[in-house]
């Protein structure tokens, strides 16, 4: 009889959130500001994408992957966060997830990046709308969104240089 009551108790427990993976790095193992990569142009952000994002184990070039680069006050990359892996033509992005690690890491500003598996780097209406929403959210948090770079097969597109940041 007691075992049956214990079983009922266990089945009524609320379901837990999926566990998340966090990587803690000792301060002495972090790169010095001189070793951090400068990210002041879309081309340098794309270089970082090619060197670091495409080598991540969860990165899938056949799906849209949304990444946030965390920058310090000198626009050097402190780290990045893979926010979302979507389908071949869409991905879900929420401001809470975009700014969570940037706040925890103490970033001064961020660069938004994602790929288009089709190879075309031109932004869609959804890309423009999400970018404007994230710019407004960043203004509330006093975290500047520097740019949104879309990476294609051989080219890239910067929403800032296209004039969507005004």
Describe the protein:
By secondary structure, the chain is of the alpha+beta class. It has one domain: Cytidine Deaminase, domain 2 (3-Layer(aba) Sandwich). The protein has helices spanning 2-11, 42-53, 95-105, 125-141, and strands at 65-71, 77-85, 109-115, 144-151, 156-158. A five-stranded mixed beta sheet has the order 2-1-3-4-5, with helices on both faces. A hairpin with a 4-residue loop joins strand 4 and strand 5. The model has no long low-confidence stretch (mean pLDDT 86).
Question: What does the secondary structure layout of this molecule look like, with pairings?
Answer:
Blueprint: H1 2-11, H2 42-53, E1 65-71, E2 77-85, H3 95-105, E3 109-115, H4 125-141, E4 144-151, E5 156-158
Parallel strand pairs: 3-4
Antiparallel strand pairs: 1-2, 1-3, 4-5
């Amino acid at each position: 009889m007691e075992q049956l009551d214990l079983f009922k108790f266990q089945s009524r427990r609320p379901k837990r959130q999926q566990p998340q993976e966090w990587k803690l790095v000792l301060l002495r193992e972090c790169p010095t500001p001189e070793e951090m990569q400068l990210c002041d142009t879309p081309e340098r952000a794309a270089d970082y994408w090619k060197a670091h994002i495409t080598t991540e184990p969860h990165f899938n070039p056949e799906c849209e992957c949304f990444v946030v680069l965390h920058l310090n006050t000198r626009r050097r990359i402190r780290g990045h966060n893979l926010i979302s892996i979507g389908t071949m033509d869409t991905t879900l992005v929420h401001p809470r997830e975009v700014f969570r690690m940037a706040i925890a890491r103490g970033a001064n500003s961020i660069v938004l990046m994602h790929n288009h598996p089709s190879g075309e780097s031109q932004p869609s209406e959804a890309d423009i709308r999400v970018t404007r929403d994230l710019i407004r959210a960043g203004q509330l948090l006093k975290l500047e969104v520097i740019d949104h770079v879309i990476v294609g097969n051989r080219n890239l597109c910067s929403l800032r240089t296209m004039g969507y940041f005004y």
